[in-house]
Specification:
The protein is globular and about 55 Å long. A hairpin with a 3-residue loop joins strand 11 and strand 12. The chain is built from twelve helices and twelve strands. The protein folds into two domains: 193 residues, inorganic pyrophosphatase (n-terminal core), CATH 3.90.1640; 134 residues, Diaminopimelate Epimerase, Chain A, domain 1. Strands 3-2-1-4-5-6 form a six-stranded parallel beta sheet, with helices on one face. The protein has a six-stranded mixed beta sheet with strand order 7-8-9-10-12-11, sandwiched between helices. Helices cover 37% and strands 18% of the residues.
């Protein structure tokens, strides 16, 4: 922690980035650290490699419009790279950044983080990277403005599963309380994130629930969203955020999985050509004792014990379902 604080205090030019398909924690940390570095007098740039639209539940966050999207800035190789909420260099979506950066500072809460930075602060027991960043900003003496506070609170809210995951500790609640005391409107943030659902996303959810598979005596729920489902619902891939939680909320379900198709023409690691089937898989479990991170890691994915994911290239939904059923059976379906 102190090494990161000292390094950030000394930096004059930084490029801050996070993982592809950024969630509330990644985006919140991106904005909060960017504003903090600006307060400290640094030349700070936010960068997102992923060109897909940001999930609408997070698009309201202040400062997002300043992020460079797609191609990194021309002077990226001259800036210290700071990654937030990113478990590996590959997850940035542009590994060259790490290779060319004069120094990389890696701040994360994923226990399976590959420690790809020159300085690595990985606190796997924390509810979110935003919780870690809050401590860093306090040590830096940064003013927690409303914009920074909202960004951090959003990260904590989302990655703690609305404060329901076992990773939500007493410290998590203390940080949230301090942010609220500082002026963060927690009710408004909850409304933005969870109560402004686009109609297209609701239609997508209907198709997901209609086509779901229940296995392991009702303890495993798997939903599939194909390209046709996106088209019929009038929805983009950015509207999949949080849909897997609807499966986990079903009575008796202990592990939930969402399998969704990537857009036509996408080419990602592990995929041989653009015509090959490509799906992303999001996993959630109801208890820390049910480790879905292990299931994701076997497919070169990662995450947390209760929330993880992976990308499946060249496999059909049926093959992925078979893999998930067999894997989960080894955890919760023993006779």
């Amino acid at each position: 922690m102190d090494e990161v604080v000292d390094a950030l205090r000394a930096e004059k030019r930084v490029l801050i980035t996070c993982h592809v398909k950024p969630d509330g924690d990644a985006l919140g940390c991106l904005i909060a650290l960017h504003r903090a570095m600006q307060q400290l007098g640094a030349d700070s740039v936010m960068y997102l490699a992923d060109t897909e639209a940001i999930a609408p539940e997070f698009s309201w966050l202040g400062g997002l419009g300043e992020a460079i999207i797609g191609s990194p800035p021309d002077d990226a190789a001259a800036r210290t790279l700071v990654t937030v909420d990113c478990g590996s260099a590959e997850r940035i979506g542009n590994e060259v950044l790490v290779e060319k950066a004069p120094r990389t500072i890696n701040i994360d809460h994923h226990a399976d983080n590959t420690r790809f930075g020159d300085i690595n602060l990985v606190m796997g027991a924390s509810s979110s990277t935003a919780e870690i960043l809050y401590s860093i900003l306090n040590k830096l003496g940064v003013e927690i403005t409303t914009e920074i506070g909202e960004a951090l609170y959003t990260g904590i809210l989302v990655d703690s599963g609305r404060f329901q995951y076992s990773s939500a500790s007493a410290q998590t609640f203390r940080v949230a309380a301090e942010l609220i005391s500082g002026g963060v409107d927690h009710a408004a943030i909850f409304h933005h994130v969870y109560e402004t659902v686009p109609l297209a996303k609701t239609r997508l959810l209907c198709r997901l629930l209609t086509n779901m598979t229940i296995a392991c005596d009702g303890k495993l729920a798997i939903g599939v969203i194909g390209r046709n489902d996106f088209e019929l619902a009038g929805a983009g891939n950015g509207l999949t955020e949080g849909l897997v939680d609807n499966l986990r909320a079903i009575e008796g379900v202990q592990v939930a999985a969402l399998i969704y198709a990537r857009p036509a023409g996408a080419l990602e690691p592990g995929q041989k050509n653009r015509n090959e089937p490509l799906y992303r898989v999001s996993l959630r479990s109801s208890s820390e004792t049910l480790d879905v991170q292990r299931i994701a890691k076997a497919k070169s994915g990662g995450g947390h014990r209760q929330a993880a994911g992976f990308t499946a290239a060249g496999e059909t939904p049926e093959q992925i379902i078979a893999y998930l059923t067999e894997s989960v059976s080894g955890i919760i379906c023993q006779d």
